[in-house]
Amino acid sequence: MKKSRRDFIKQTVLWGSWLLLAGRKTATGARPPESALPAYGILHEKGDLAERVDAAYALFESCTLCPRQCGADRLSGETAFCRATAKLKVYSAQPHFGEEMSLVGRRGSGTVFFSNCNLRCVFCQNWPIAHKGQGKEIDDGTLADMMLELQKIGCHNINLVTPTHVMPNILNAVKLACKKGLRIPLVYNTSGYERVEILRLLDGVIDIYLPDMKYMSPEKAAIYSAGVSDYPEIAKAAILEMHRQVGLHRTDRRGVAQRGLMIRHLVMPNGVAGTGQFVRWVAANLPLSTYVNIMPQYHVAYKAFEYPEIWRRITVKEYLEAMSWAEKSGLSNLDPDSVRMRDLYRRQ
Ligand code: SF4
């Protein structure tokens, strides 16, 4: 079973990992590319990446980066729901071995955890980072150097965790890092609460989209994720746009992901996540070979103790039911670890 993000946080010495990386020789002489020029490299060569950065940064003036559309002037230091100004804040940057196998490969996924969040679920497993904003302010150039260091130590990708509210900083960092030799795929690891108009700025930049599909019910989304009753419709539209941009999950000959859509769905107790509806929606709206990870590792974290519906882990029966709905829907590309977990549970 994958390590939960909470386990991951426990193992992370705040900033220690980045300080370790920072102690290495700076990354201008980055590791040779593992694959052909990635999407963002092509965009950079055409000169289009700088225009995207300008367009994205302009959004900070009256922030509409996410569906909350708060209108805060983040360039002047104003904050709103996500509590972020235009200054980037990062918690950690290090190889991570708890993600999907095709992202981890042999050398790990180069994971960057951004502080703050535009969704803020009551059961958040990363709450010190997402809710409390733990982390350190850095400039975009430092993020570019972090990316290059992760590439240099052999990570297979740059895995951008909770990127939505800092997307302009990320784009700028990618532009700077690309000039210095960044070549590995970019993974956009998001809650799924994304505006399609904003995602279009990432078309040709992001190689792998890794969205959650958390709920299918507006009521559950509103209760557990700070009022976002529009989450199901917003996330569905976002996922269709992501698929339009990058298509199906594709790996190289080593089985390492290079491009495509990978959807995560965390099974929650008492049917809160709407798993049956979710798998039927995927089957009806995307190719049956879409990569789907039905995740069993929900655990009670942060304020979940205050909500009786979600104050326990899921049962074996609930997980087996979820996997059986996925199979009955015809989904043919389920995450290998989820299939192993299903087989293990079946033997119990
Ligand atoms: S990114 Fe933050 S400030 Fe901008 S619209 Fe979303 S929650 Fe509001």
Gyration radius over CA: 19 Å
**CATH topology, which one?**
TIM Barrel
Percent of residues in beta strands: 5-15%
The appropriate CATH architecture is Alpha-Beta Barrel
Task: Give the secondary structure arrangement, pairings included.
Layout: H1 5-11, H2 16-22, H3 39-45, H4 48-58, E1 88-96, H5 101-104, E2 109-114, H6 127-130, E3 136-138, H7 140-152, E4 158-161, H8 167-179, E5 186-190, H9 196-199, E6 208-211, H10 218-224, H11 231-246, E7 250-251, E8 257-266, H12 275-285, E9 291-295, H13 316-328, E10 333-334, H14 336-347
Parallel strand pairs: 2-4, 4-5, 5-6, 6-8, 8-9, 9-10
Antiparallel strand pairs: 1-2, 1-3, 7-8
Helix pairs in contact: 4-8, 7-8, 13-14
Bound molecules: iron/sulfur cluster (SF4).
Please provide a written account of the structure.
By secondary structure, this protein is of the alpha/beta class. It has one domain: Alpha-Beta Barrel (TIM Barrel), CATH 3.20.20.70. The protein is built from 14 helices and 10 strands. Strands 1, 2, 3, 4, 5, 6, 7, 8, 9 and 10 form a 10-stranded mixed beta sheet that branches. α7 crosses α8 and α13 crosses α14. The radius of gyration is 19 Å and the shape is globular. The two termini are 15 Å apart. The N terminus is likely disordered.
Features:
disordered N terminus; 14 helices; TIM Barrel; single chain; 14% strand; alpha/beta; 37% helix; globular; 348 residues; binds iron/sulfur cluster; ten-stranded mixed β-sheet
In brief:
The protein has helices at residues 5-11, 16-22, 39-45, 48-58, 101-104, 127-130, 140-152, 167-179, 196-199, 218-224, 231-246, 275-285, 316-328, 336-347; strands at 88-96, 109-114, 136-138, 158-161, 186-190, 208-211, 250-251, 257-266, 291-295, 333-334. With 348 residues, the chain is of the alpha/beta class. Residues 1-35 have low confidence and may be disordered.
